[in-house]
Amino acid sequence: METEKKTSFRRPSDPPAKSELNAQKETYEWIQSLITALMVIVFIFLFVVRVIDVSGSSMNPNLWNGDKMLVSGLFYKPKAGDVVIFKKPSYSTEKALVKRVIATEGQVINIDFDQGIVYIDGQPVEEDYIAELTKTKEDFIGPKTVPEGCVFVMGDNRNASTDSRDSRIGMVDTRYIVGKAMMVIYPLSELRIID
């Protein structure tokens, strides 16, 4: 005796099967997670960190032309020794400048160009990060007191840097500082924290 095979057909008006509902739900949740992740990444790159290129040789031997840096300005307050990125409206360049903070508000800076020594509040600054001693004067006449809300910056490649010694840059208002350079991320062979 032959048994009849029962075939179940679903009419178009029938509700979708549970497995189809689960697949749709999983797809929806995956898309929602992807959109959330993209929003977080956009927020981070707008408000927390930026990728900025080094342009020029003023920060040699610590940063080189073409290096890409992660820069963060979130809750940042500049302090001496930090490498910062800033824009200076009075200086004719569209690019952000990269320099090291040498003195902060209220500090007195002076430079002995004969000896190549930088003094802060009458004390010589230990500068193991510079390419060579500071011999180029630009139009700096010291001593100078750093005004409130400003910093005095210089490049590590002292004799090939346009910085606060030049009146076109002068003291940098901290409101123009984009942030602190945190690390070099490119080239990958140079991946490191910036100090």
Structural notes for this entry:
The protein has 195 residues and is of the alpha+beta class. The chain is built from one helix and twelve strands. The strands form two sheets. Strands 1, 2, 3, 4, 9, 10, 11 and 12 form an eight-stranded antiparallel sheet that branches. Strands 7-6-5-8 form a four-stranded antiparallel sheet, with no helix packed on it. The protein is elongated, with a radius of gyration of 28 Å.
Helix fraction, binned, reads 10-25%
Oligomer: single chain
Shape: elongated
Work out the number of β strands: 12
The unreliable regions are none
Amount of beta strand: 25-35%
Structural class by SSE content: alpha+beta
**For the residues shown, what is the average pLDDT?**
86
Give the count of helical stretches: 1
Question: How are the SSEs ordered, and which strands pair?
Answer:
Blueprint: H1 18-48, E1 49-53, E2 68-72, E3 83-86, E4 97-104, E5 108-112, E6 117-120, E7 123-124, E8 144-145, E9 150-154, E10 172-173, E11 177-186, E12 192-193
Antiparallel strand pairs: 1-2, 2-11, 3-4, 3-11, 4-9, 5-6, 5-8, 6-7, 9-10, 11-12
